[in-house]
Amino acid sequence: MTPPPGFEAVPTGLGFTDNLQPLFRRVDGQWPEFGLVVSEPHLNMMGVCHGAALMCLADISAASGINTAAGKTAGSPTINLAVDFIAAGKRGEWLQSSIDHVSLRRRFGFCAGVIEGPGGLVARFNGTFYLPDHKGVWKGPVRDAGGVLGVEPEGSS
């Protein structure tokens, strides 16, 4: 299956996120959207998309929405993530996350969104994320594989 127009492949090399590969991202509206085609690595023993894969997709989507709203490229650690599983995502189906709401406070970001498939709503999610006042503890160069974080490569400015 080909992703919908505007979606680009998220590169590999992003740690745990690689478990969702092939993963796609589109940034053409207020919030980034992510999507995947449910394939063998995403399936549980019942042959449908595993809840952990849906939670990972929700977490990546919500954190990206928070970071976009905050204008930050530093990671925003997840404090809480709640997911309501509504329907099954089946093998071969395109599942797509979208953000409904983002609210920022001094140190916290709140986000709500949904994951939808061809039959409608698959899951809804909401999360709370910490907004650090620093760039993190990593001391090496920022590794932004394919611009996923929106960071300019070092030495490019």
Note the main attributes of this structure.
157 residues; mainly beta; Thiol Ester Dehydrase, Chain A; seven-stranded antiparallel β-sheet; 1 helix
Write structural notes for this entry.
This protein is mainly beta and 157 residues long. The protein has a single domain, classed as Roll (Thiol Ester Dehydrase, Chain A), CATH 3.10.129. The protein has one helix and seven strands; from the N terminus they run E-E-E-H-E-E-E-E. Strand 5 and strand 6 form a beta hairpin. It is globular, with a radius of gyration of 15 Å.
Instruction: State the CATH topology.
Output: Thiol Ester Dehydrase, Chain A
Q: What is the count of DSSP helices, taking H or I runs of 4+ residues?
A: 1
Percent range for β-strand residues: 25-35%
Q: Could you say which structural class the secondary elements and strand pairing correspond to?
A: mainly beta
What is the CATH architecture assignment? Roll
In the sheet with the most strands, the strands line up as 1-2-3-5-6-7-4
Which residues sit in consecutive blocks of at least 5 with pLDDT less than 50? none
On the 0 to 100 scale, the average pLDDT is: 88
**CATH superfamily, called what?**
Hotdog Thioesterase
Number of strands: 7
Count of distinct structural domains: 1
**Helix-strand pattern:** EEEHEEEE
Termini separation comes to: 38 Å
Q: What summary fits the major beta sheet?
A: 7 strands, antiparallel
Please give the radius of gyration in angstroms.
Answer: 15 Å
